[in-house]
Amino acid sequence: MNFSVLCCHRLIPPALQAILQMGELKIDGFIEPGHVSTIIGIKPYEFISKEYKVPQVVAGFEPLDLLMGVWMLVRQIQQGKAEVENEYVRAVKPQGNKMAQQVLQQVFEPMDVKWRGFPIIPRSGLRLRKNYEAYDARKKYEDELQKIAKEEYAEPIGCLCGDVLRGLISSTQCPLFKRECTPENPVGPCMVSSEGNCYIQYRYTKK
Ligand code: SF4
Predict the structure, then answer these.
(1) pTM for the full predicted model
(2) What does the pLDDT look like over 108-120, one tens digit per residue?
(3) DSSP string, 134-177
């Protein structure tokens, strides 16, 4: 069968919990991703606010959405609240997309995975369920993938992506930022994607 799926899906709530449990940073609040939330809704974030007393706002993708999201977080902090608020109401329903959730539930199951800069986070990734394993590239090409598995999270020499991703440093504190590492010649993954912190800082920090 000439069809395979290399499933790399990650789940946001377990990663948020891992950041909080690692205790490296004082987190005042989270802006939650609007695109993810169109599918999962609001509920999966609620345990974070309840257990860790951290305010959260689901925000959208326009600059004004993010500004509004920051304002809503500050308002919660001022009022001593820790709730999940939804700024992105034009796209995110509290219950999310039920049909998509059912399909995800049918096809995928949670698994423990390592994240760049983090240890293995329990039940933070998705893999294909047994019924769909005939399509699972990780099973079909196990030997080939094992060879590159060890390198998958290795950071290039001098790259501090792990620290950037955990919020320990700003990208600008990396000695390679804007020198050896640029979007045209990225040293690490955070400079590659338009969602990468180093790429964003490169693009929007003042010269
Ligand atoms: S991607 Fe580049 S700027 Fe970012 S941490 Fe790695 S080397 Fe430094």
Answers:
(1) 0.87
(2) 999 999 998 888 9
(3) GGBHHHHTHHHHHHHHTTTTPPPTT--HHHHHTTSS-GGGSTTB
pLDDT at res. 4: 96
Domains contained in the chain, CATH given? 1-148 (3.40.50.11750), 161-204 (no CATH)
Query: What amino acid occupies position 159?
Result: C
170, 177, 179, 205: residue to mutate for ligand 1 pocket, most atoms within 8 A of CB = 177
pLDDT in tens, 71-105: 999 999 999 999 999 999 999 999 999 999 999 99
- CB of 177 shorter than 6 A to ligand 1: yes
How many whole angstroms from 199 Cα to the centroid of ligand 1?
9
What is the whole-number distance in angstroms between the Cα of residue 86 and the centre of ligand 1? 32
